[in-house]
Amino acid sequence: MSRFPLHSLRTTVMAHLAFLILSAMLLMNVAMIKLAEKHIIETKLQTGRLLLNTLKQLVSNEIACRDRSWEELGADPRFKTEVARLLDSGDFSGAMLLKGLGRRVFSAGTWGEAERSAVSISRECFSTRKLSFDFFGTAWGVFWLAHEKVNMSAPVFVEGRLVGVATIGADLRPLYQRLRESERVVLIYIFLNTVILVLFGLYLLSRTVVKPIHGLLNITEEFKDVESVPPMEDSSPNEIGQLFRSLNVMLKHLEQNKKELKEYIRSLENANQELKKAQDEIIKSEKLASVGRLATGVAHEIGNPIGIVLGYLDLLKGNDLNREERQDFLDRMESEITRINQIIRDLLDFSRSSSDAVKQVNVHELITETLEMLNPQPMMAHLQMKPVLEASRDVVWADPNQLKQVLLNIIMNAADAMGEALTEDNVSANILTIKTENREDSIEVRFADRGPGIKQEELARIFDPFYTTKEPGKGTGLGLSVCYSIIEELGGEIFAESTPGEGTTVVVKIPLYEEKQVHTID
Fold this sequence. Notes:
With 522 residues, the protein is of the alpha+beta class. It has helices at 9-65, 70-75, 77-90, 115-128, 173-222, 239-301, 303-317, 323-351, 363-374, 400-419, 456-459, 479-489, and strands at 94-99, 103-109, 132-140, 145-158, 161-171, 359-362, 384-389, 395-398, 431-439, 442-448, 493-499, 503-511. Helix 7 packs antiparallel against helix 8 (323-351).
């Protein structure tokens, strides 16, 4: 194994140390270079002031002492030589003399594009009678763009009278070049200092931090119980020593908590089993309540066909019927008995205990079966069922018996709600719309009735156990609570929307079946 793996603490410390030290030194170097650049330019300006004073003194002596004109002075080779010597001594590139407000009488050195700026600053100096300077152009400095040239002007006085202006100019690019050359040496020193400081800092941090942390890491990786922990012998008074001692105490508490957690998990498992049994009993009891209510309707519904069958039997006892009439009566009796048998069979199928037979279920088929089972019930006589099955995918993974119980409870609640509206004698308004749609990876079933609706303060409680808005004896308050538990166990969602006076919509969302997913219902 490498001593410095890529993601180790030692590598991270070394990288951060190198970055911090190098960044600090480079920032200090930038600051020092900028200060040095500023200081050199100030020195250059100071040198220019001295050079201008010398040039002014030379011009004054020539005009005052030798009584020479500006034109004679500008044409004198000796004067030109003296000015060139002054420029070389101060490392300036050009000099200029202006008579009056702007007529140039002498120029030496190279000016280039800075000449116009020099003339402008000379006129400004003649007007203000003060020393003036101006930077011209941009060039690459040490790190960034800087001034390319500087021009300086000073007024020339002869016997106290202003007679002209002396202007000199300097190219600053050689200064930047010298600074860049010295910067290379500084960068080498910075690199060497960074290496030395990083190695020394890494040694100190490895001894005081990384090595103890590796010891703690080995302890945590090998921990199984308190007996498996090697002795921790770090009596350092610093935070690392305190961490070792705290870890020792924590491991002892952890072992104790581990034992308590096992006992707690065991009790939770037992409680969960009891809770599951209680939930199953509630679902069964609510189903039995629904079966009892349906059975009442079935008893009323099969009375008519039984009466018809008995009437046909009385007719068959007579001897005045021919063969064709007897056969017609027998066929009609068979049809009525078949109808009775189908009603009872649907009720028996629903009343059977759920065997947790979780499988693929077609929601549309289940809705159709539920409506067919409820169709003979007297409570549905005043309702118009309007199924709008628009979902293109309707296969879910569920217990069909439990899902049918959800559908049955919601439809019966809607029937009870709209049954209250019969006093208004508006049968056409009693429509229950059952609409299905696909929402991403789910099927949404909306049960929209036109009953009296539910108040907003009651809407949030309708899924609570034993909460009901029906009169005493007409509801257990468990129907919607059972629906909520079943849908939640399927990973779905159920909620209600209602406006008082306009009706209620119960929305059920169930995840669609996917063949690759694993389905379990605890």
